[in-house]
Model the fold of this input.
Amino acid sequence: MSDPKSFDILVVGGGMVGSALALGLSRQGWHVGLVEGSERKALLEAPATADSVEGFEPRVSAISVASQRLLEELGVWSAIAAGRHCPYQSMTVWDGDGTGRIQFEAAELQARALGTIVENRHIVRGLFSALADSQVELIDGVKVTGWWQNQNQRGIELENGTMLGADLVVAADGANSRLRQWVGLPTREWDYDQQAIVCTVKTSQSHRFTAWQRFSPTGPLAFLPLLTEGGDEHFCSIVWSQDTEEARRLMALDDGSFAGELERAIERELGTVESISRRFAFPLRQRHAKDYIATGFALVGDAAHTIHPLAGQGANLGYGDVRALLDELAQARKSGLNASDDLVLARYQRRRKGENLTMMAAMEGFKQLFARDELPLRWLRNTGMRWLNQLGPIKNRIAAEAMGLDA
Ligand SMILES: Cc1cc2nc3c(=O)[nH]c(=O)nc-3n(C[C@H](O)[C@H](O)[C@H](O)COP(=O)(O)OP(=O)(O)OC[C@H]3O[C@@H](n4cnc5c(N)ncnc54)[C@H](O)[C@@H]3O)c2cc1C
Done:
């Protein structure tokens, strides 16, 4: 067998996280390959006009200010912001079973927005347009089917039989990462026994550039504001996490009955629900790799951790990983170290594991607190929310953390 084509760094998976990482690494001067199972042509396709609920992509992300900064530094945010996106200035969170309510305001933080809702495919499209003008060698439309390693190198096998080698392989191949399994990095995981129902709706009232989140014992419901090209403020992306049985019942309803349930569940904050796109349901599972690294190997994004979508932090945690790995590898390059240097990878793991675990634990605590119906817990969360809402500095500190700002 001839020697496999070789890179400094091979990134597997060109989703929101892997494509950003590949772009950043190549800008640092590393020889980078990016392997993505989908065809680049499909990923670069122009979006449909959003003049109806079906015009929007079903999957969206609440991009934090810190993630936006990273995308700005990579030079892709202006392309993303030239397309459909919706900055939101307020966030309202309340307990459907009580009187507790918290309101976060960008103005109180001297910020222009708390975050921006963007369709996932727009972010990937922006990144792939930039990749086309970069030094990254993009290997698209082909899946990785295997992993190999010898004393000095390691690499992957593609479904067409091609072998590729690298000093460092980074897995950004999503929640069910095959690479993580082949390399043998175990995970700690548990099933929430919940599903997230995702769709787009049009409401009779404007969303008022607010992200709405109502908690109930069977799970949280989020209305995330969207904006059409023409500036119509009546569209929202829904993420409705519900216990599996309840999610199945909701999925089986016809559109009219589902709209009625949604209006009741959000307490008609946005008036009536006038139209609903096709609905999708995702099973929810918390997953965290016990280690993010092995010799010449690292995990980023959902391949390392998946989190409940109740605070919309999944992609933001992934971008936190990208930021940390870019910092450590820039330093390694300056110092003349290899990309696979053990200490460099260990520093990356140390920086990210604690932060990701803290966020995951906080989400779990939130979910448990709102799932319980006992009177003392209901009192605690309602009193806690009202109390927190009146405490400007602490509340703003929490908001700044979620936005990824240094408060
Ligand atoms: C219902 C729901 C709502 C969410 N809402 C939010 C939100 O509001 N805000 C937020 O920040 N996050 C949110 N998230 C989480 C967010 O979507 C994920 O964290 C994010 O998409 C992870 O990006 P990634 O690039 O790590 O993985 P992925 O997006 O899964 O990308 C993996 C890529 O790898 C490729 N790939 C996989 N296997 C192979 C292979 N063998 N060979 C070649 N290529 C391969 C795939 O084609 C894909 O392009 C939500 C998640 C869910 C389920």
In short: The longest strand covers residues 187-203. The chain has a mean pLDDT of 90. The chain has one domain: 5-403. The pocket of flavin-adenine dinucleotide is lined by residues 12-18, 35-38, 61-62, 120, 143-144, 172-174, 178, 196, 198, 239, 282, 301-302, 309, 312-316, 318 (CB under 6 Å).
